[in-house]
Structure to design on (331 residues):
């Protein structure tokens, strides 16, 4: 081969390589466009199927909470064994910690309550009651459901509530990733968020499994300063009639890590009675009064203290009058 033909051959090879690279890029871009269309078409329907499937179910598991001080290792602060029942918007969670303390938290359409006993079989005492089913107490109980029990399509809030709202979220790239031989879908997004009234921009991504009902596999998001970090990953067991069933949920923020391990989950309905005060042997709530925690207890004690103060003032005034009378007689 002559030296004069070498540059020509190299030029042709470079030209072919450029064409092939451009073709591969265009094909990849077209695949991403097709995947974006498929995601936009199929994922909303999958969310509805998941919402319907997780409308009535019950089960059990263990929650482990660990916290991390700055520059320190993770320290386990709580291990709770619990059972849960969900029927529509009604939720009941029975908790037992390592010390044996037993707690029942429940919310139904009329009220939310919290009751505790030193031991599981001991008498339960009411520790909190709120008439409004959307109260702070009710939202606190419901947060457990959204963090763990609905992990297939929810992290803090259901994914669909913010992902498909154009006023809150801008969806970026949608592309394929491989995990342990499975073809998954990664969705990148930026999200407008308000933390304690302060507007914040969150950038994040989530990974979904189309082969398992588009269930959430992993999500990560953070603001630019790294103050509001959140990461979750979900491991699944065998599906139940096509319904993805979580086996383990890890939820981690800046200084806290929560791990929930499912022991059992069954997609069956629970009677309404199970979410009531009557179900734990306490008088049923019938009135329209509102209390939170044991506020009535403090009102009672305050009233009693005022009464005792008035009695003391009465006797003090009586004693003073007697002293004045004795002094008058002596003079």
């Amino acid at each position: 081969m002559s030296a004069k033909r070498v540059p020509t051959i190299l030029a042709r090879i470079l030209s072919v390589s450029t064409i092939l690279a451009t073709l591969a890029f265009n094909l990849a871009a077209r695949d991403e466009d097709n995947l974006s269309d498929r995601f936009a078409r199929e994922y909303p329907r999958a969310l509805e199927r998941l919402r319907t499937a997780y409308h009535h179910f019950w089960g059990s598991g263990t929650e482990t909470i660990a916290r991390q001080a700055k520059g320190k290792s993770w320290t386990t602060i709580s291990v709770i064994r619990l059972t849960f029942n969900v029927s529509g918007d009604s939720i009941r969670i029975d908790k037992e910690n390592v010390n044996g303390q037993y707690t029942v938290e429940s919310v139904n359409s009329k009220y939310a309550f919290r009751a505790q006993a030193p031991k599981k079989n001991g008498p339960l005492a009411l520790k909190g009651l709120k008439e409004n089913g959307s109260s702070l107490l009710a939202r606190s109980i419901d947060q457990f459901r959204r963090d763990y029990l609905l992990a297939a399509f929810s992290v803090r809030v259901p994914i669909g509530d913010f992902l498909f709202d154009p006023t809150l979220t801008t969806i970026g790239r949608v592309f394929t990733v491989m995990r342990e031989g499975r073809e998954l879908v990664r969705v990148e997004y930026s999200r407008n968020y308000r933390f304690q009234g302060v507007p914040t921009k969150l950038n994040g991504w989530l990974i979904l499994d189309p082969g398992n009902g588009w269930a959430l596999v992993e999500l990560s998001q953070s603001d630019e300063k790294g103050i509001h970090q959140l990461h979750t990953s979900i491991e699944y067991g065998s599906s139940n009639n096509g319904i993805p069933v979580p086996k383990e949920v890890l939820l981690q923020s800046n200084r806290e890590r929560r791990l929930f391990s499912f022991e059992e989950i069954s997609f069956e309905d629970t009677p309404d009675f199970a979410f009531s005060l009557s179900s734990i042997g306490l008088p049923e709530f019938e009135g329209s009064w509102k209390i939170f925690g044991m506020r009535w207890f403090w009102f009672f004690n305050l009233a009693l203290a005022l009464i005792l103060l008035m009695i003391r003032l009465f006797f003090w005034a009586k004693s003073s009058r007697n002293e004045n009378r004795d002094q008058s007689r002596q003079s």
About this structure: Confidence is low (pLDDT under 50) at residues 19-29, 289-294. The longest helix spans residues 5-53. The helical segments are 5-53, 136-149, 159-163, 295-330.
